[in-house]
Design goal:
Elements lengths: L1 H41 L3 H5 L3 E7 L4 E4 L5 E4 L3 E6 L8 E13 L8 E4 L5 E4 L3 E6 L5 E8 L2 E4 L5 E4 L3 E6 L4 E6 L2 H4 L6 E7 L1 H12 L2 E5 L7 E6 L4 H12 L1 E5 L3 E6 L4
Parallel strand pairs: 5-6, 15-18
Antiparallel strand pairs: 1-4, 2-3, 3-5, 4-5, 5-8, 6-7, 7-10, 8-9, 9-12, 10-11, 12-13, 14-16, 17-18
């Protein structure tokens, strides 16, 4: 009987040996399924994240601001900038943020496992792993500009056209025609606004007007003057409005007058 009982108990003994293995296998499969689900949850589409609730927002109005992002990356925000963090944007797989408006310099903490992605308006997207670069994305200007100081950056438009940038290269995106192209640049000069210096090279009147209003809160008006000009000038907050106006007038043979809210340029009257 004892032997029989032992024989009858053998299947139970076997089950006791196999049961933990079965449970362990089930747990492994469950963890794998959860892991896959989490992966696809965090790797969700851009549209899903773009519609996610804003968890935190940085807004600068009259001053520049230095910030540290949750992943340890550093950023300097220029005047009139809005940067948003959305729920789920920074996760174990990606680091995604939204530059809604303005200008920012990023010094991205290297993390090969988690790309750093900046979303701009019109579906423009910048992706890096670890680098430093500047983005200009003011809604008042008809273009967006990305310039690279260190590392490499990939810029992708809404139609999936993309350009890859190395140091001292920039991407220009013009909303008219969805035009994205790259060209050489002096990235150090472009990022000089971080110290309060504005360097304009072959800039349009639109950008000149914008930068003077940004720094001095004065509107620039050109009366009976060329409406298409290529501006090359450097100035900062310490430069007086009169000095800037005088330099522009001298470069382009214009006269000027300054009021409380405006700088008005016009053609010189020939003597």
């Amino acid at each position: 009987q004892t032997s029989v009982k032992l024989e009858k108990s053998n299947p139970t003994a076997k089950r006791r040996v196999l049961l933990p293995v079965f449970i362990g296998s089930t747990a492994s499969i469950a963890l794998l399924i959860i892991g896959i689900a989490l992966f696809y949850t965090f790797r969700g589409s851009q549209a899903d994240l773009s519609s996610a609730r804003i968890a935190h927002q940085y807004i600068t109005e009259k001053n520049r601001e230095d910030i540290t992002l949750p992943d340890g990356s550093k950023a300097t925000l220029n005047i009139g900038t809005t940067l948003s963090l959305r729920e789920g944007g920074i996760n174990p797989f990606t680091r995604e943020i939204w530059l809604d408006e303005g200008e920012a310099f990023f010094d991205v903490r290297a993390d090969k496992a988690r790309p750093f992605i900046v979303h701009l308006r019109n579906g423009l997207k910048i992706q890096v792993l670890g680098t430093s670069f500047t983005i200009q994305s003011y809604k008042e200007l008809p273009y967006q500009e990305i310039s690279v100081l260190n590392g490499k950056v990939k810029v992708t438009a809404s139609d999936d056209k993309s350009v890859e940038l190395s140091p001292n290269q920039k991407a220009l995106y013009r909303e008219a025609g969805n035009d994205l192209r790259s060209e050489p640049a002096n990235s150090t000069q472009i990022a000089a606004w971080r110290t309060g210096t504005i360097v304009l090279e072959k800039a349009s009147l639109e950008e000149l007007r914008f930068r003077i209003r940004q720094l001095y809160d004065k509107k620039v008006i050109f009366e009976d003057a060329p409406q298409k000009m290529s501006i090359n000038i450097t100035f900062d907050k310490k430069t007086s409005v009169n000095d800037i106006a005088a330099e522009i007038a001298a470069l382009y043979r214009l006269s000027y007058r300054i009021t409380d809210s405006e700088i008005i340029f016009s053609r010189k009257i020939r003597e």
